[in-house]
Amino acid sequence: MKKFIGVVLSIVMVLSLVACSGGKEKESSEGTKEGSGSGKTVGVAMPTQSSERWIKDGDNMKKQLEDLGYKVDLQYAEDDVQAQVSQIENLLASGVDCLVVAAVDSSALVNALAQAKSAGIPVIAYDRLLMDTDAVSYYATFDNKGVGTAIGKYVEENMDLANTKEAYTFELFMGSPDDNNAVMLYEGIMEVIQPYIDKGTLICKSGQTSFEKSNTLRWDQQTAMKRCEDILSTYYADEKLDIAFSAFDGLSYGIKAACEGAGYKVGEDWPMITGQDAELMAIKNIISGSQTMSIAKDTRVLAEKCVTMVEAVLNDAEPEINDTEQYDNGKLVVPSYLCTPEAVDKDNYKEILVDTGYYTEEEISSDSE
Length: 369
Prior knowledge:
By secondary structure, the protein is an alpha/beta fold. The chain has helices at residues 2-30, 52-67, 81-93, 110-118, 144-158, 180-199, 211-214, 221-235, 249-261, 280-288, 299-314, 349-354, 361-365, and strands spanning 41-46, 71-76, 98-101, 123-126, 136-142, 168-173, 202-203, 243-246, 272-273, 294-296, 336-339, 342-344.
């Protein structure tokens, strides 16, 4: 009898183990590879918390990696080049298994990234290409030239540049010279508007149409405001500025402040002001009329693509790639995934940003920034 009971208990235990195993397998197949990162740590180096978009990037990256079971060490350098160098060196010393980097100034990171390669730690470039290094495995970004093209096309269509008989004044407020993305965005804008400059439909009274003359170090709002103030007082005392091609919402805030200081009025002589990143403040400004448009870049999607790259390099697999030509960093052409940017204005922001859950109506209508 005891022998019979023992056999029955053994069968019950085996069936229980099979059931538990099957249940776990089902949970895994229906989830998002939960636990695949167990025991591994990903270091994430972001440039700054002064911009809303980088906070979202960091939060999205951390959440998605942790959902997969990875430990995440998220660092912000506050646009301090040497601080980011130290942070990356510390991440490497702590023994991270993979490194995700959105650089402040990638030229300063070459030696630290060489250490990563020597240690066998894979590196993923996040939305800013890591230049002059062969340590980078993949690059997750938005189509940066496409961002510039979208800005240029928006202005072209909304000002009817192809058909107008009028001439419009414009100025360029481009991104940081140490960010390869800024150069590509500039190229995208110029590709669209150069024919109208040649034709005389667009006139830059300052003459500052080169990237070297129109860039803004560190994408800094105060720098953009001061430059805009100088341009308005020097070149637009007797004529109004019609279009400000801004490469980033932060720069747009500086342009807005300069225009207010120069006496421009929304609804009267306010210039068209572009932007990028669709920050919450920018959307509020778009609704109020003090900014015309921005470029939406869903950081949830970008983080997701970067996470697939992390998964790939840590599991000897290959992630989805859609560009193997554009991003030559001086050492190699970095395999990349380019997410698609979208132009947003007062007519479509609800569809693109609210209906998708990127922002809530409450956030947009709130008086707090």
